[in-house]
Amino acid sequence: MVGTNSKITKKLDNEICSIFKGWKNEGQVFNVFISHCTFDAFLANKLAIIFLIEKGVPYSLFNIIQDYTPLDENDWTKILDLSTKSIQRYKQLEKHFGRLQSEKIIEMAEVTNIGLDVFGNIDKFKLWLSTPNFALGKLKPIELLKDSYGKEMVIGELTRINYGILA
């Protein structure tokens, strides 16, 4: 997580560890993960991601991911296909998000992680997300994050930028 606020990074690490330690009795699959528990390790562990999506992302983790990503409240309502009021209800009731919303939340964390590796800081990444991109059909990358196909296109473009392959 190059260039991120270390307080947010620490909060992400602590939150993901507490979530998985709470589920320790679910099976032996995550014992190795729990012993080296960081948010980066979580994002690299597809089984852990699937498990969390199945259980649902708790609002407490979503709240920290909101601070980690360059997305504002309006972006989140579009990506999650939820109203601001609905998101506030998740907060008030300390609910877990459903599978679809949980998957989107984790996807945005993954995109942010890659974007930070490529650009080095959140401000440069945010500028790139909001600038029309020729390689992405002159759309702003942020406009493509609503579905998994668009997310894959954005990740593909970030990967090409990282390797110096420009359209």
Radius of gyration using CA atoms only: 16 Å
Specify the biggest β-sheet.
Answer: none
The coarse overall form would be: globular
The secondary-structure element order is HHHHHHHHHH
Instruction: Compute the average pLDDT.
Output: 90
Number of helices: 10
Beta strand count: 0
Tally of distinct domains = 1
Low-confidence stretches: none
Helical content, roughly?
55-70%
Structural class category: mainly alpha
Beta content: under 5%
End-to-end separation in angstroms reads 26 Å
What's the SSE blueprint?
Blueprint: H1 6-22, H2 31-35, H3 39-44, H4 46-55, H5 59-68, H6 73-80, H7 84-93, H8 99-119, H9 122-129, H10 148-162
Helix pairs in contact: 1-5, 4-8, 8-10
List keywords for this structure.
167 residues; mainly alpha; 66% helix; 0% strand; Antitoxin; Xre-like_HTH
Q: What features would you describe in this structure?
A:
The protein has ten helices and no strands. The mean pLDDT is 90. Helix content is 66%, strand content 0%. It has one domain (6-162). It is mostly helical.
